[in-house]
Amino acid sequence: MPPHASPSDISTPQTEFKASSYASDGKIHILLSATGSVASIKIPLILSALSKYSNVSVRLVFTTSSLLFLPPLTELLNIPNVDGIHLDHHEWPKDLSSTPAENLPTSASPDRENEETTSAIWSKIGDPILHIELRRWADILIIAPLSANSLAKIVGGFSDNLLLSVVRAWDTNKPIAVAPAMNTLMWEHPVTTSQIKVLETEWKWFKVLRPVEKLLACGDSGSGAMKEWSSIVSWVVEEMKLKLESEGGDVGNA
Ligand SMILES: Cc1cc2nc3c(=O)[nH]c(=O)nc-3n(C[C@H](O)[C@H](O)[C@H](O)COP(=O)(O)O)c2cc1C
């Protein structure tokens, strides 16, 4: 198996992230997320397609389970238009429960021992809170693929990781597109039907890019496969009125 992504690929946040620093960059801000489905292998293809558009800035939020299906994250950071990757431990230090209080970041201990690993993590009132900053920054959130687990948590209102916190704190005037991907029997389960119904009929800021039928990675055949990655990109291009470099697009034309 080729090497896959790991939380340690980006052990610390690249920089402290504040949405206001990007408010006037003239770009369309796309927050793209993957969850723990094999279909996460399509993320590099989606990013490669989005790299061809002008005035686009993409930031990535990955659940820990999705990392199994992604290449080393530094490879994704090299794709044009990809401006950042945000992981759970960038919001919550991994070792929080085992970290003695005196070693936790605090404005009162400027020469703290953990400076390198915690410098961009919240430490005092007034510091940016990552999931809120990402929501402020994003013009759209795309979750492709969306696992059965994250679907259930979204509809249930859970917010126990970075992605779910962004979704829970979302400004409902902006769109969230989700592309569910799961085993056929999971997709056909009545609980999935009722969760999708909430997104499609009650939560109008959601767009469900429904799965397609094909032979799944597990060997079963039927509905549940993530919508074709190129169709997902086409939907985003149309929704956000993206312009190819060759079309000389900028936000003013959008
Ligand atoms: C190899 C493998 C493939 C998986 N594929 C899927 C899938 O396509 N869809 C899905 O809903 N869950 C799938 N799962 C299960 C999820 O990864 C698991 O429910 C996980 O908790 C999801 O976490 P997340 O929603 O936080 O990303 C798969 C698990 C493994 C080990």
Plain-language structure description:
The protein is an alpha/beta fold and 254 residues long. The chain has a single domain, classed as Rossmann fold (3-Layer(aba) Sandwich). Helix content is 30%, strand content 17%. The chain is built from ten helices and eight strands. The strands form two sheets. Strands 3-2-1-4-5-6 form a six-stranded parallel beta sheet, with helices on both faces. Helix 2 links the parallel strand 2 and strand 3. Helix 1 runs parallel beside helix 10. The longest helix is centred in the C-terminal third of the chain and has 13 residues. The structure holds flavin mononucleotide. The site of flavin mononucleotide has 14 residues, from helix 6. It comes from Orbilia javanica. One of its GO terms (cellular component) is phosphopantothenoylcysteine decarboxylase complex. Keywords: Coenzyme A biosynthesis.
The gist of it:
The protein is α/β, with parallel strands linked by helices. It is built from ten helices and eight strands.
Number of strands: 8
Helical content (DSSP H or I, runs of 4+): 25-40%
How many structural domains in the coordinates?
1
Strand order of the largest sheet: 3-2-1-4-5-6
Helix count equals 10
The CATH topology annotation reads as: Rossmann fold
**CATH top level label:** Alpha Beta
* Assembly of the depicted chains: single chain
Bound molecules: flavin mononucleotide
> Strand percentage, roughly?
15-25%
- Cα(first) to Cα(last) distance is 42 Å
Major sheet: size, sense and barrel closure? 6 strands, parallel
What ranges have pLDDT less than 50 throughout 5 or more consecutive residues? 101-118
CATH superfamily: Flavin prenyltransferase-like
